[in-house]
Amino acid sequence: MMYLVCLSLITIAPVTDVQAADKPNDAGSNIDITWILSPDDAFIEYYSVLRRSSQDTVEQYIGRTKYGICTFEDNTAQDNTVYTYVVATVSGSEIARSKPSNPCRSYPQVFHSGRINVLICILIFSALVLYFVRRARHDKNLFIRKIAGLAAVEDAIGRATEMGKPILYVPGLWDIDSTATIASMNILGEIAKKIARYDTPLIVTNRWSVTYTISKEIVKEAFISQGHPDKFKNDYIRYLTEDQFGFAAAVNGIMIREKPAANFFIGYFWAESLILAETGAMTGAIQIAGTDAVNQLPFFVTACDYTLLGEELYAASAYLSREPLLLGALKAQDFGKVLALAMLVAITILAFFGLHLSSVMTVR
């Protein structure tokens, strides 16, 4: 009984030092409110946050927090409107209001100060690209590690030419919005240029109508660039079907009936990868595969003569064309990876000596 009487005599104290500030590094409409907890924090139910703008005649309720919490984020503010905030301490029927906060307005920030490290990385990478593009334009023999699968392209085309048999090119089973398909189209263009010079029949099979149209234009452009537009035939580019295994069966039929001397499986593949590669191996064709589908790489490595692994697929177009822009980007990527690795090693070593710099690489 005495305890209840004592509680009824308690008058709760309000929170103090209410501060409002625009939330940093955001797109606007957010204001952070902080305060010092009420001395009676252990006895209250919650804190109610009220807001008032210069146009309001009364304060508006915008939310509440539990006891023990001294922050609140107002994410309904209108940019460039000045607000003041009051935090009410509520315990049953008792309410204790704080003094109004400082006036504050929200506004969007153009630059995110927590991502300076990203900006620095972009500047370094851009500088590397410009440097290596310049070098590639002046040095035609800019070194790129030899990729066995790409070095064998000339041999495969030469073998098909000597045998008088066609070359089969499968640009994967994904549509043109796949990065692997785009990389495959770049490689197709370079291979088509070599084929145009050797006057060897080409078969490009497509699963999607868009890839069919694009591959047709790429091959036609390659023949024109080599001065042999008359050698291009519409039958070189074929549309088969969108069905996954229907497409695989159709390609297998082409390999068995027309017996290409060289097969290229370049792009993204699923379960049909081993079906295609095994059939090609049975016909005795030299086979070069390339994909970034990690699950399919073992099948291609097993059944094909050469396989482009992962990123080698994306480096292939630069390797084959020796185009300065592509070479510069490729070399810049390699040096960027070396720099990132060096930073990781340096930060790890410094961590052993108690100097923790991992926050330098944190993107907020």
Brief digest:
With 364 residues, the protein is an alpha/beta fold. The chain has helices at 2-9, 116-138, 148-151, 153-163, 179-198, 209-225, 244-258, 272-282, 297-303, 312-321, 324-352, and strands at residues 16-22, 31-36, 46-53, 60-66, 71-74, 83-91, 94-97, 167-170, 202-206, 237-239, 262-266, 286-291, 306-309.
Structure notes:
This protein is of the alpha/beta class and 364 residues long. The chain has a six-stranded parallel β-sheet with strand order 10-9-8-11-12-13, with helices on both faces. The chain has a four-stranded antiparallel β-sheet with strand order 4-3-6-7, with no helix packed on it. Strands 1-2-5 form a three-stranded antiparallel β-sheet, with no helix packed on it. A hairpin with an 8-residue loop joins strand 1 and strand 2. Helix 2 crosses helix 11, helix 7 runs parallel beside helix 8 and helix 10 crosses helix 11. The two termini are 55 Å apart.
Q: Tell me the overall shape.
A: elongated
Structural class, judged by helices and strands? alpha/beta
Extract low-pLDDT stretches.
1-9
Q: List the helices and strands in order.
A: HEEEEEEEHHHEHEHEHEHEHEHH
Q: Cα distance, first to last residue?
A: 55 Å
Number of strands: 13
Helix content range of the residues, please? 40-55%
SSE topology:
Blueprint: H1 2-9, E1 16-22, E2 31-36, E3 46-53, E4 60-66, E5 71-74, E6 83-91, E7 94-97, H2 116-138, H3 148-151, H4 153-163, E8 167-170, H5 179-198, E9 202-206, H6 209-225, E10 237-239, H7 244-258, E11 262-266, H8 272-282, E12 286-291, H9 297-303, E13 306-309, H10 312-321, H11 324-352
Parallel strand pairs: 8-9, 8-11, 9-10, 11-12, 12-13
Antiparallel strand pairs: 1-2, 2-5, 3-4, 3-6, 6-7
Helix pairs in contact: 2-11, 4-5, 5-6, 5-10, 7-8, 10-11
